[in-house]
Amino acid sequence: MPQEACMPFIPDWESCGKASRRPSNLSTPAKMIQLKTMLNCIDNSGAAIVECVMVVGQKRHASIGDRIVCVVQKQRSANAEGMASSSAANKVKRGDIRHAVVVRTRQKVTRRDGSCVRFDDNACVLINKAGDPVGSRINGIVGQELRKKKWSKILSMAPMQA
Amino acid sequence: MNVSPLFFRRPLGCLKTTSLRQAARQQKVFRRTLATAATEQQQPASFSDHNFYRITDKKTKKIRTAFAIYEPLAAPEVTPSTPLKALPLKPPHHDPMPALQAAQIARMDPTGARTALFAKTRGAARVGDVLMVTHRRGGEPFAGVCLSIRRAGIDTAILLRNHMAKVGVEMWYKIYNKNVAGIEIVKRRAKRARRARLTYMRKPKHDMGSVDSIVFAWRKTRKVLTTRGGGGNKGAAQKGAAAKKK
Fold it and tell me: Does residue A9 form part of some domain?
């Protein structure tokens, strides 16, 4: 495994061409998804890092299961880890504006029974306007809140949920 | 236009001032009881100094007013005619919360196993141990390093951290939650942690990574013990100081 694969939650800011836009005080990924938040894209649509440009619905921040509009900032290389199917890869290009569903947040999400879940990164899955996922696979864990928000298609594609 | 004199109509805001003045006066009366016991007679009632709405009934010599005067709320009762006595000291105020929390804990954890598992005793689970939480609702049990124990009576919760699919996942669980079917100690920390909260374990330098291998090994030993024990998971219970209670 390459070194990058061990810590997928640290986006490669310098190589995605947005180094100047990165907030100087941001040593860790943002906790709530809002304008300009960078997220990892964990499906095989071809995007690696996307930037949130809008939270769909009258919300301040997006949480797990919320829909956002995002810009693809960095493409996944053709033979990236875990994405063996090159035919499905690169459905999206850098600069594309897409919709996405947030599947992991660094911000704690409280469940009804009082338990909380928190991930080490912010991640999303690209969808089209109808709400169907752009990619065909998801590699990575997703939050269980997706079930409550009726994203069962994404849940069934995910290998694990927490 | 409302041109009726103030004698008959008082603005509503006046009620507020009246009640405030009343309260202040009562405070004064109370202070007097402490200092100069009962030397001076109290003035009747705690009405306002203004005379314009105080009417003395000629027959009964009682004061009638043009306004409804309510009993003061929760103020110390001071009867003006009788001489004032020193008020007895109230018994110390008892906090009802500990009793309530004890009752709640007794209800949620009748056997006391959950309380014992996170008590500050030798055998109890401590920060740095690898714990596994099983859900009532099914699904995979969640195992992880215990980063902190938030002791707050019935709200007592534990923070577990693990890596799943190379992503760090942290979960808070309430230990008295009925959805938490059981909490087991998978592996104890070799040395006692010298911090109460091991948040430094989020840093890559100190991160334990996935505890799945530890859990797998523990499951294997448990299986061996149970099969040798001939039914029942007595061995497992001893091995893990399990708190698998309904």
Answer: no
ipTM above 0.90, yes or no: no
Residues B196, B131: Cα–Cα separation, whole Å: 16
Coil/strand/helix, residue B21: helix
Number of residues assigned to chain A:
162
Which of B157, B168, B177 has the CB atom closest to A119's CB atom? B168
Distance from CA of A130 to the nearest CA of B (A): 28
Which range marks the domain in which residue A128 is found? Answer: 32-161
Helices (H), A14-158: 145-148, 152-157
| Total beta-carbon pairs less than 8 A apart between chain A and chain B | 59
Give the type of residue at A102. V
Please give the mean pLDDT across all residues of chain B: 77
Structure tokens at A28: 């860790």
In this structure, is residue A135 part of a structural domain?
yes
CB atoms within 10 A of CB A62: 26
Number of structural domains found in chain A: 1
CATH code where residue A58 lies: 2.40.150.20
Asked whether the predicted pLDDT for residue B212 surpasses 80, the reply is yes
pLDDT value of position A151 = 94
- Best to test chain B binding among A10, A141, A161 (most B CBs inside 10 Å): A141
Residue A93 lies in a domain: yes
